[in-house]
Design a protein that fits this description.
Elements: E1 7-12, H1 19-31, E2 35-40, H2 42-46, H3 54-62, H4 73-76, E3 87-93, H5 95-102, H6 109-118, E4 124-130, H7 138-145, E5 150-152, E6 155-157, E7 167-169, H8 174-182
Length: about 190
């Protein structure tokens, strides 16, 4: 299914090192005709890092959309009941967000958006970015891979020698993963070399 004309929620969490690449991929989504609704985790809204200031990142992602950014749990809650999205992309999805999603925790705008979206039996696509993907979060990846309506952007080890448990999704696979998920399919192979 083509992404053009789709309402795509883009839920941004705090893996700050990936934000520039993800922003570029979201620009491509917009160029292909997707309508974006940005959703920000509390960390993205409040933490300045060596990769940029929180305010600048929120502005950069918000400028890609005609829709207002979702910044609170209260703003995220209506996304489900009002059925406002066709698909939700969590990009990046940190290990913390992944673990909470696996266990049904809804204590951030991103997780509330995911919960509401899943209740409509619509796809959530995860762009993994976690230093403990092959550590304590491996079980969460496995559980979510077997969860209905959850899909992954293909991922691989980004630094096997320096960070052997770290995995990150491939930005060039975001659009193919979204289009496949809209048809209820997982892009294969899920694990790819970086």
């Amino acid at each position: 299914m083509n992404i053009s004309g789709c309402n795509v929620g883009v839920a941004v969490t705090g893996s700050f090192c990936t934000l520039a690449k993800i922003h570029k991929a979201i620009q491509e989504l917009v160029e292909r005709g997707a309508r974006i609704t940005p959703i920000f985790s509390d960390s993205v809204q409040s933490i300045d890092s060596r990769f940029g200031k929180a305010e600048d990142w929120m502005k950069a992602f918000s400028e890609l959309s005609d829709n207002p950014a979702v910044r609170t749990i209260q703003e995220a809650e209506p996304l489900g009941p009002k059925n406002l999205l066709d698909i939700l992309l969590i990009a990046p999805c940190t290990g913390n967000t992944l673990a909470k999603l696996t266990n049904g925790v809804t204590d951030t705008p991103v997780l509330m958006a995911a919960k509401g979206h899943l209740r409509n039996n619509k796809p959530v696509v995860i762009f993994l970015s976690s230093n403990d993907s092959l550590g304590s979060n491996l079980k969460n990846i496995g559980l979510l891979m077997n969860t209905k309506h959850i899909f992954f952007v293909p991922f691989g080890q980004d630094s096997p020698a320096g960070k052997p448990n770290s995995m990150v999704s491939h930005t060039e696979q975001i659009i193919p993963a979204l289009e496949a998920a809209l048809e209820g399919k997982q892009v294969q192979p899920v694990i790819q070399t970086c």
